[in-house]
Amino acid sequence: MVNSKEILKDHISKFTTLTDEQLDYVFGHFNLITLKKGQSLILEGDFVNHEYFVLEGCLKAFYLNDSMKMFILQFAMPTWWVTDFDALYNKTRATINVDCITNATILSISNEDREKICNEIHEVEHFFRWRTNKGYVAAQKRLLSFMNNDAKFRYQELLSMYPQLYNLVPKHLIASYLGVTRETLSRLHQ
């Protein structure tokens, strides 16, 4: 079993300094969740009140259009955060789904608890602001890559940033993430 407290502590400590007492207090607002491969965390239409920190495993955030075509928005691996942020922050129903590609262990924190500890500990608010900004930057870079680069470049870029994905994630999901067919992905991998 993973040491969830140490993983979260190490993650937060990379970006801000907290005392051991503060870290214990922050950790006390998280709940440990164990999920099986294929299990859903968020389904389209759900109300979303939590965000999730991945300790072990891999999850995917995705959208299904009216034709049931899947669009992968994010793969969430250890030390990554995932939720339907639109639904969480705007208190609307989820428009995306989040489920497990592998067995996973995650920590969850409610929106209320996150806001509470951010108001109480300035360094925690700094951490969450930094983390949110990093997510916005990553989303912008991905969108710009889609607009400016061909599939081969996007594939090479993905593998250079996350080499473990190719062996961890089924190929049809990588194809969906890249916006190509499974056949095109096979050609790109040659």
UniProtKB/TrEMBL annotation:
Tell me the classification of the organism that encodes this protein: Bacteria, Pseudomonadati, Bacteroidota, Flavobacteriia, Flavobacteriales
Pfam families in the record: cNMP_binding
Q: Where are the transmembrane segments?
A: none
Protein name per Swiss-Prot or TrEMBL: Crp/Fnr family transcriptional regulator
Gene3D superfamilies to which the protein is assigned, alphabetical:
Jelly Rolls
The record places domain Cyclic nucleotide-binding at 14-95
Source superkingdom: Bacteria
